[in-house]
Amino acid sequence: MSVITLDGRPIQVDEEGFLTDPSEWDEDLGKALATAIGITLTDEHWNAIRFLRTDFAEQGETATLRRVSTRGGIPVKKLFALFPQKPAKKMAYVSGLPKPHGCV
């Protein structure tokens, strides 16, 4: 576990840069995390992020891309447009959650 400074505050991250304590996350940090990977957040991004955060609180693990699509009601194609190349991984990163199981 490492500590990095982002948006002027220290946060604990794993070896891939994912937050190790989701309670450290807030929307300002989410914006900073998104900016760090080249994403400018829109309302559509926030819908996905808020779904992930709520689902994580209920399920205890980060939702897969399929779950975000089926339960969150956001088409997979739209998720790829919002979070290009690796949407599940990028959504989890910006949401301050662990990388979903099955992500490489």
Mean pLDDT level: 93
Strand content: 5-15%
Q: Portion of residues in helices?
A: 40-55%
For the biggest β-sheet, the strand order reads 1-2
What's the N-to-C terminus distance?
19 Å
The shape, in one word, is globular
Radius of gyration: 13 Å
Q: In terms of per-residue confidence, which ranges show pLDDT below 50 for 5 or more consecutive residues? A: none
Number of strand elements: 2
**Order of SSEs:** EEHHHHH
Structural class: mainly alpha
Question: So what's the oligomer here?
Answer: single chain
Number of helices: 5
Largest sheet: 2 strands, antiparallel
GO molecular function, one term: sulfur carrier activity
Organism: Nocardioides zhouii
Subcellular location: Cytoplasm
Pfam families: DsrC
Structure in words:
The chain is mainly alpha-helical. It has a domain at 26-95. Helix content is 47%, strand content 10%. The chain is built from 5 helices and 2 strands. It has a two-stranded antiparallel sheet with strand order 1-2. α1 (27-36) crosses α5 (87-95) and α2 (43-59) crosses α5 (87-95). The longest helix is centred in the middle third of the chain and has 17 residues, at 43-59.
Task: Furnish the topology, listing elements before pairings.
Layout: E1 2-6, E2 9-13, H1 27-36, H2 43-59, H3 65-70, H4 76-82, H5 87-95
Antiparallel strand pairs: 1-2
InterPro entries: DsrC-like_C, DsrC-like_dom_sf, DsrC-like_N, DsrC/TusE
Pfam families: DsrC
Keywords: Cytoplasm
